[in-house]
Inverse folding.
């Protein structure tokens, strides 16, 4: 009688009617999840942790000749004073090798920058912009290429770290003597401002909350170059993975602190969050390039950061490329332009243009390399499980209770014909059905740990009727059962999705037809801007979306796996004052996540993720739809693109490929002229 009390509350069925267990008994039982053949082939870069990056002073350093000219003209300090005394030496031997300076990388983005205050949740246009502009305590993107014993987060603004003997404290040494792109010093004050006044301030819509790093976690400043974490658990090793993009990436406190309401009585949270409009350039960053020009709906230009703290083995300051361009267009156009040679990089992630792109790739003058990755992209429907966040009416209340009913989720998942959905996007062997949870082509995606409920439209209709949902007025849509606040109304469910991606729009359309078949009316709730604020305000019933790293590299986003903090996971949010009412199986998931956090052995973590998968798919924590492989497409003029770079692993391909090492041979540089040659951010 799992759901009787609940059912009575929303009028699903009278007490004493069919037992909850009977509702789904006529549905096809779980069966093995179909597994697809991998599209990955060819070599994959492999390098030891300590070879890829090391902190080391070198006998001398170099820079582009035109930068030296600016130094000579007295516009910029010499290179040795701009670099930290001990810079980060990055390997180039595992790729094509030492590069030459110059050249441009042309990106395209389908999003738009909201502003540069990333600590306050501003989006900077995605597509690899954020991964250039934000630098974080640790770097996770290149982990995919590490081999051997040590496969863990790499240094970025934190140079090194060590655990206390009891494992409750982690001391992090920050890079010493590093500078922001405006030449101001970077220090522990930047990190503390991020933690105290952004992440820990519920009025700032930061990407992470303190509890996401383990309940009760605190951070303290030790000295100008040292911070110390304090954890309730001993040795929460996995937490280190969460200290990178995009949660622990300090912004420049010297600019932002005076704009924050805590330090400025004329400021409001609103003015702080929106203080740095995208027009405000050059923007100040610790990254390899920084934004120097922005033309709305046209282009963003980034130029090399003369204070960037990385060098190659010979002491050449990175990056090699002087300029990055971001044309502002659509995501689909990114692939189209890259395939045609008018842009240089795309994540091929829109199945509806795969076949055409592959046809172009057959042509002898095709300008790009294509590197296929695992089925790392998934689309799913999340059902809003929160009964405390954004519940503003009887309807919201009834809808959330329905979403929280496992029988209902089971019926809904069996309405979806995943094979047909996949084939409608692209015919052929690309797409496989997805049950939700961990991706199959990972260490932890074992088919036997997936509970997959197959398509069964007849069974679903019958089961819905058993729950009391019948079409009493003959318009083809089932009506809510008698007794509840929505009695007699049609079952209309809002489906939130983004219109920025063609794939999401196509899937939404197919779902309307499929659910209509079961008598469920999906009311499309298209969103043409950033969808996350809507998600976070809980103003939705169901949310169709592509998932980023969470189910490909779950250790990065533990808070998205179960309600560890009020601000996550998106499918089940609390509020800053009211925690989530956990569903019974969520307690089991939380226990698993807690074990993952303190498990240092990646193999054992994988085992825990498999257990997680079993429970979450059995309980239909999301309605998984499809798993899709993607490829990165990069123009052939670039050297140092690591073979095997995945479209999405610990990060998207833009960051996994380490763009600061890309270079273009001198004789090819003229093919794409720089828009702002020989200029540096803020130097005239
Ligand atoms: C968007 C794109 C992805 C990738 C990421 C990087 O989500 O769709 O392909 O470029 O941005 O943040
Ligand atoms: Ca009806």
């Amino acid at each position: 009688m799992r759901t009787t009390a609940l059912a009575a509350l929303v009028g699903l069925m009278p007490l004493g009617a069919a037992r909850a267990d009977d509702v789904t008994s006529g549905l096809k039982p779980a069966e093995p999840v179909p597994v697809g053949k991998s599209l990955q082939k060819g070599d994959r870069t492999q390098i030891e942790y300590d070879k890829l990056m090391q902190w080391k002073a070198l006998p001398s350093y170099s820079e582009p000749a035109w930068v030296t000219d600016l130094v000579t003209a007295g516009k910029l300090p010499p290179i040795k004073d701009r670099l930290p005394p001990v810079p980060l030496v990055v390997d180039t031997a595992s790729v094509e090798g030492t590069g030459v300076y110059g050249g441009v990388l042309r990106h395209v983005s389908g999003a738009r920058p909201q502003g540069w205050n990333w600590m306050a949740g501003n989006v900077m246009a995605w597509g690899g912009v954020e991964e250039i502009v934000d630098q974080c305590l640790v770097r996770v993107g290149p982990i995919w290429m590490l081999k051997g014993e040590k496969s863990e987060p790499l240094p970025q603004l934190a140079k090194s770290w060590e655990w206390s003997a009891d494992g409750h404290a982690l001391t992090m040494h920050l890079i010493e003597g590093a500078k922001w792109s405006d030449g101001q010093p970077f220090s522990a004050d930047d990190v503390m401002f991020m933690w105290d006044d952004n992440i820990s301030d519920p009025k700032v819509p930061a990407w992470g909350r303190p509890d996401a790093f383990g309940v009760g976690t605190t951070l303290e400043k030790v000295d100008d170059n040292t911070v110390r974490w304090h954890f309730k658990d001993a040795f929460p090793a996995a937490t280190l993975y969460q200290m990178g993009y995009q949660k622990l990436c300090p912004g420049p406190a010297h600019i932002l602190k005076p704009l924050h309401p805590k330090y400025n009585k004329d400021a409001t949270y609103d003015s702080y969050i929106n203080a740095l409009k995208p027009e405000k350039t050059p923007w100040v960053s610790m990254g390899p390039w920084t934004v120097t020009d922005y033309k709305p709906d046209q282009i963003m230009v980034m130029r090399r950061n003369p204070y960037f703290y990385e060098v190659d083995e010979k002491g050449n300051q990175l990056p090699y490329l002087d300029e990055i361009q971001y044309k502002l267009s659509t995501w689909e156009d990114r692939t189209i332009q890259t395939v045609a040679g008018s842009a240089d990089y795309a994540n091929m992630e829109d199945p509806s243009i795969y076949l055409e792109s592959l046809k172009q790739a057959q042509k002898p003058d095709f300008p790009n390399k294509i590197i296929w990755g695992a089925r790392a992209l998934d689309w799913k429907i999340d059902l809003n499980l929160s009964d405390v966040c954004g519940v503003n009416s009887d309807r919201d209340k009834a809808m959330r209770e329905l979403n929280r009913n496992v029988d209902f989720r089971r019926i809904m998942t069996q309405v979806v014909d995943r094979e047909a959905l996949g084939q409608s996007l692209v015919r052929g062997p690309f797409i496989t059905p997805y049950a939700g949870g961990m991706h199959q082509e990972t260490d932890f995606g074992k088919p036997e740990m997936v509970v997959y409920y197959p398509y069964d439209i007849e069974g679903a209709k019958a089961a819905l009727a058993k729950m009391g949902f019948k079409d009493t007025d003959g318009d083809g849509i089932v009506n809510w059962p008698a007794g509840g606040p929505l009695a007699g109304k049609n079952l209309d469910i809002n489906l939130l999705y983004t219109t920025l991606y063609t794939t999401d729009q196509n899937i939404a359309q197919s779902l309307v037809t499929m659910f209509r078949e079961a008598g469920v009316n999906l009311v499309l709730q298209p969103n043409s801007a950033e969808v996350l604020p809507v998600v976070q305000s809980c103003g939705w019933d169901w949310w169709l979306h592509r998932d980023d790293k969470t189910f490909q590299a779950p250790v990065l986003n533990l808070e998205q796996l179960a309600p560890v903090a009020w601000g996550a996971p998106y499918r089940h949010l609390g509020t800053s004052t009211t925690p989530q009412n956990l569903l019974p199986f969520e307690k089991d998931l939380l226990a698993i996540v807690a074990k993952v956090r303190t498990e240092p052995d990646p193999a054992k973590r994988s085992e825990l993720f498999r257990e997680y998968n079993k429970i979450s798919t059995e309980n239909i924590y999301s309605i998984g739809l499809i798993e899709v492989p993607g490829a990165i497409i990069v123009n052939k003029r670039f050297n140092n693109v690591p073979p095997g770079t995945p479209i999405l692993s610990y990060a998207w391909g833009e960051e996994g490929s380490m763009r600061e090492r890309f270079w273009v041979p001198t004789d090819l540089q003229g093919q794409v002229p720089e828009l702002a040659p020989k200029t540096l951010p803020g130097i005239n």
Observations:
- The chain has two domains: 49-372+631-671, 379-628.
- The longest strand covers residues 289-295.
